[in-house]
Amino acid sequence: MITVLLVDDEPMVCAHLRTILGAADDVEVVGEAHDGAAGVEAVVRHRPHVVLMDLRMPGVDGLAAIERVAALRSPPVVVALTTFDADEYVIRALRAGAAGFLLKSTPPEDLVKLVRVAADGHTVLSAAATTRLLGTAGARADGRARTRDLLGGLTGRETEVLGCLGEGLSNAQIAGRLHLSEATVKGHVSRLLDKLGCANRTQAGLLARDAGLR
Q1: pLDDT confidence of residue 135
Q2: DSSP assignment of 56-95, as one string?
Q3: Are the C-beta atoms of 53 and 81 separated by less than 8 Å?
Q4: How would you label 149-165 residue by residue, b for 16+ Cβ within 10 Å and e otherwise?
Q5: Residue 135 burial class via C-beta count within 10 angstroms: exposed 0-12, middle 13-18, buried 19 and up
Q6: Which of 38, 69, 113, 160 is 20 to 30 Å from 60 by CA-CA measure?
Q7: What pTM does this model have?
Q8: Higher model confidence: residue 91 or residue 156?
Q9: H-type alpha helices, the chain
Q10: pLDDT, the chain, mean
Protein backbone atom coordinates (compact mmCIF):
# COMPACT_ATOMS: atom_id res chain seq x y z
CA MET A 1 0.00 0.00 0.00
CA ILE A 2 1.34 3.43 -1.00
CA THR A 3 0.63 5.99 1.70
CA VAL A 4 0.22 9.61 0.62
CA LEU A 5 0.13 12.92 2.51
CA LEU A 6 -1.52 15.96 0.91
CA VAL A 7 -0.25 19.46 1.69
CA ASP A 8 -2.16 22.35 0.09
CA ASP A 9 -3.63 25.54 1.52
CA GLU A 10 -6.85 24.99 -0.44
CA PRO A 11 -9.04 22.33 1.25
CA MET A 12 -10.93 21.82 -1.99
CA VAL A 13 -7.71 20.78 -3.75
CA CYS A 14 -6.99 18.26 -1.01
CA ALA A 15 -10.56 16.93 -1.22
CA HIS A 16 -10.22 16.55 -4.99
CA LEU A 17 -6.90 14.69 -4.69
CA ARG A 18 -8.20 12.52 -1.85
CA THR A 19 -11.19 11.44 -3.93
CA ILE A 20 -9.05 10.49 -6.93
CA LEU A 21 -6.33 8.70 -4.99
CA GLY A 22 -8.80 7.00 -2.66
CA ALA A 23 -10.34 5.15 -5.59
CA ALA A 24 -7.11 3.20 -6.14
CA ASP A 25 -6.76 -0.13 -4.36
CA ASP A 26 -3.04 0.34 -3.67
CA VAL A 27 -3.05 3.99 -2.51
CA GLU A 28 -4.12 5.36 0.88
CA VAL A 29 -4.28 9.07 1.79
CA VAL A 30 -3.14 9.08 5.42
CA GLY A 31 -3.53 12.77 6.13
CA GLU A 32 -3.54 16.33 4.90
CA ALA A 33 -2.21 19.70 5.99
CA HIS A 34 -2.87 23.25 4.83
CA ASP A 35 0.48 24.99 5.34
CA GLY A 36 4.13 24.04 5.17
CA ALA A 37 4.79 23.88 8.92
CA ALA A 38 1.79 21.62 9.51
CA GLY A 39 2.89 19.57 6.51
CA VAL A 40 6.29 18.84 8.04
CA GLU A 41 4.63 17.88 11.34
CA ALA A 42 2.27 15.58 9.46
CA VAL A 43 5.21 13.90 7.69
CA VAL A 44 6.79 13.13 11.06
CA ARG A 45 3.47 11.87 12.42
CA HIS A 46 2.28 9.76 9.49
CA ARG A 47 5.58 8.75 7.79
CA PRO A 48 4.00 8.56 4.32
CA HIS A 49 5.71 7.12 1.27
CA VAL A 50 4.81 10.12 -0.91
CA VAL A 51 4.00 13.76 -0.11
CA LEU A 52 2.17 15.94 -2.63
CA MET A 53 3.30 19.45 -1.64
CA ASP A 54 1.83 22.73 -2.87
CA LEU A 55 4.59 25.28 -3.46
CA ARG A 56 2.79 28.54 -2.81
CA MET A 57 1.26 28.63 0.66
CA PRO A 58 1.01 31.35 3.32
CA GLY A 59 3.40 31.21 6.26
CA VAL A 60 5.88 28.40 5.67
CA ASP A 61 5.69 27.84 1.92
CA GLY A 62 6.28 24.62 0.03
CA LEU A 63 9.93 25.36 -0.70
CA ALA A 64 10.84 25.75 2.97
CA ALA A 65 8.76 22.69 3.84
CA ILE A 66 10.51 20.57 1.20
CA GLU A 67 13.89 21.56 2.63
CA ARG A 68 12.76 20.62 6.14
CA VAL A 69 11.37 17.28 4.98
CA ALA A 70 14.54 16.49 3.01
CA ALA A 71 16.55 17.00 6.20
CA LEU A 72 14.58 14.31 8.07
CA ARG A 73 15.98 10.83 8.54
CA SER A 74 14.62 8.55 5.79
CA PRO A 75 12.49 11.29 4.21
CA PRO A 76 9.54 10.42 2.00
CA VAL A 77 9.38 11.20 -1.70
CA VAL A 78 8.12 14.75 -2.13
CA VAL A 79 6.38 15.79 -5.34
CA ALA A 80 5.67 19.48 -5.83
CA LEU A 81 2.17 20.57 -6.79
CA THR A 82 2.14 23.57 -9.06
CA THR A 83 0.03 25.51 -11.52
CA PHE A 84 2.97 26.48 -13.73
CA ASP A 85 5.34 23.87 -15.15
CA ALA A 86 8.55 25.82 -15.76
CA ASP A 87 8.92 28.69 -13.34
CA GLU A 88 11.72 29.47 -10.91
CA TYR A 89 9.71 28.04 -8.01
CA VAL A 90 9.71 24.60 -9.64
CA ILE A 91 13.46 24.69 -10.23
CA ARG A 92 14.06 25.76 -6.63
CA ALA A 93 11.80 22.95 -5.41
CA LEU A 94 13.82 20.40 -7.38
CA ARG A 95 17.06 21.76 -5.94
CA ALA A 96 15.53 21.62 -2.45
CA GLY A 97 14.87 17.90 -2.80
CA ALA A 98 11.57 17.42 -4.63
CA ALA A 99 11.56 14.32 -6.82
CA GLY A 100 9.51 16.08 -9.48
CA PHE A 101 6.30 17.96 -9.88
CA LEU A 102 2.68 17.49 -10.81
CA LEU A 103 0.52 20.13 -12.40
CA LYS A 104 -2.71 20.69 -10.54
CA SER A 105 -4.39 20.21 -13.91
CA THR A 106 -3.04 16.63 -14.20
CA PRO A 107 -5.90 14.43 -15.52
CA PRO A 108 -7.35 12.16 -12.82
CA GLU A 109 -6.51 9.04 -14.84
CA ASP A 110 -2.82 10.01 -14.77
CA LEU A 111 -2.55 11.06 -11.14
CA VAL A 112 -2.52 7.59 -9.57
CA LYS A 113 -0.01 6.35 -12.15
CA LEU A 114 2.33 9.23 -11.37
CA VAL A 115 2.06 8.68 -7.61
CA ARG A 116 3.05 5.04 -8.20
CA VAL A 117 6.02 6.20 -10.27
CA ALA A 118 7.10 8.52 -7.47
CA ALA A 119 6.73 5.79 -4.85
CA ASP A 120 9.02 3.55 -6.93
CA GLY A 121 11.74 6.19 -6.68
CA HIS A 122 11.49 7.58 -10.19
CA THR A 123 11.37 11.24 -11.17
CA VAL A 124 7.87 12.54 -11.82
CA LEU A 125 8.60 14.68 -14.85
CA SER A 126 7.74 14.18 -18.48
CA ALA A 127 10.72 13.98 -20.82
CA ALA A 128 9.73 17.30 -22.37
CA ALA A 129 9.39 18.99 -19.00
CA THR A 130 12.72 17.56 -17.84
CA THR A 131 14.54 18.92 -20.87
CA ARG A 132 12.87 22.32 -20.57
CA LEU A 133 13.42 22.70 -16.84
CA LEU A 134 16.98 21.43 -16.77
CA GLY A 135 17.75 23.52 -19.82
CA THR A 136 16.79 26.69 -17.95
CA ALA A 137 18.58 25.75 -14.73
CA GLY A 138 22.27 26.04 -15.63
CA ALA A 139 24.55 27.66 -13.10
CA ARG A 140 26.46 30.88 -13.65
CA ALA A 141 30.06 30.48 -14.77
CA ASP A 142 31.37 31.35 -11.31
CA GLY A 143 29.57 28.35 -9.85
CA ARG A 144 30.53 25.90 -12.56
CA ALA A 145 34.08 25.26 -11.31
CA ARG A 146 32.81 24.54 -7.80
CA THR A 147 30.30 22.07 -9.19
CA ARG A 148 32.98 20.36 -11.28
CA ASP A 149 35.08 19.93 -8.14
CA LEU A 150 32.15 18.14 -6.54
CA LEU A 151 32.04 15.75 -9.50
CA GLY A 152 35.75 14.96 -9.21
CA GLY A 153 35.09 11.88 -7.08
CA LEU A 154 33.04 10.15 -9.79
CA THR A 155 34.41 7.44 -12.05
CA GLY A 156 34.43 8.00 -15.78
CA ARG A 157 31.37 5.78 -16.24
CA GLU A 158 29.50 7.52 -13.43
CA THR A 159 30.24 10.86 -15.09
CA GLU A 160 28.81 9.54 -18.36
CA VAL A 161 25.67 8.39 -16.55
CA LEU A 162 25.40 11.76 -14.82
CA GLY A 163 25.58 13.52 -18.17
CA CYS A 164 22.67 11.39 -19.34
CA LEU A 165 20.69 12.35 -16.24
CA GLY A 166 21.35 15.96 -17.21
CA GLU A 167 19.51 15.25 -20.45
CA GLY A 168 16.58 13.78 -18.55
CA LEU A 169 17.11 10.23 -19.85
CA SER A 170 15.52 7.23 -18.17
CA ASN A 171 17.54 4.21 -17.02
CA ALA A 172 16.42 2.32 -20.12
CA GLN A 173 17.55 5.12 -22.42
CA ILE A 174 20.89 5.42 -20.62
CA ALA A 175 21.39 1.67 -20.90
CA GLY A 176 20.78 1.81 -24.64
CA ARG A 177 23.14 4.72 -25.18
CA LEU A 178 25.99 3.34 -23.07
CA HIS A 179 25.43 -0.33 -24.00
CA LEU A 180 24.83 -1.38 -20.41
CA SER A 181 22.12 -3.36 -18.65
CA GLU A 182 19.43 -1.41 -16.82
CA ALA A 183 20.55 -3.06 -13.56
CA THR A 184 24.08 -1.76 -14.12
CA VAL A 185 22.78 1.73 -14.84
CA LYS A 186 20.66 1.61 -11.70
CA GLY A 187 23.76 0.72 -9.69
CA HIS A 188 25.73 3.61 -11.18
CA VAL A 189 22.90 6.04 -10.47
CA SER A 190 22.64 4.87 -6.87
CA ARG A 191 26.37 5.26 -6.27
CA LEU A 192 26.66 8.69 -7.87
CA LEU A 193 23.67 9.97 -5.91
CA ASP A 194 25.42 8.83 -2.74
CA LYS A 195 28.73 10.43 -3.72
CA LEU A 196 27.12 13.73 -4.68
CA GLY A 197 24.76 13.85 -1.70
CA CYS A 198 21.76 14.17 -4.02
CA ALA A 199 18.32 13.13 -2.83
CA ASN A 200 17.22 11.95 -6.28
CA ARG A 201 18.16 11.80 -9.95
CA THR A 202 16.55 15.17 -10.65
CA GLN A 203 18.96 16.93 -8.30
CA ALA A 204 21.82 15.02 -9.94
CA GLY A 205 20.60 16.14 -13.35
CA LEU A 206 20.65 19.75 -12.20
CA LEU A 207 24.25 19.31 -11.03
CA ALA A 208 25.13 17.86 -14.43
CA ARG A 209 23.73 20.97 -16.08
CA ASP A 210 25.55 23.20 -13.60
CA ALA A 211 28.81 21.50 -14.55
CA GLY A 212 28.16 21.82 -18.27
CA LEU A 213 27.74 18.07 -18.82
CA ARG A 214 25.46 17.24 -21.74
Answers
A1: 56
A2: --SSS-HHHHHHHHHTSSSPPEEEEEES-SSSHHHHHHHH
A3: yes
A4: eebeebeeebbbbbbbb
A5: middle
A6: 113
A7: 0.69
A8: 156
A9: 11-22, 36-46, 62-70, 88-96, 108-119, 127-135, 141-150, 156-166, 171-178, 182-196, 201-210
A10: 84
CATH of the domain at 105: 3.40.50.2300
- Angle among Cα 137, 138, 139 to the nearest 5 degrees reads 115
pLDDT of residue 195: 87
Residue-range definition of the domain harbouring residue 23: 2-135
Same domain, 74 and 128: yes
- Which of 101, 135, 169 terminates a domain? The answer is 135
Amino acid identity at 164: C
**Do 179 and 128 belong to one domain?**
no
The tally of domains found in the chain comes to 2
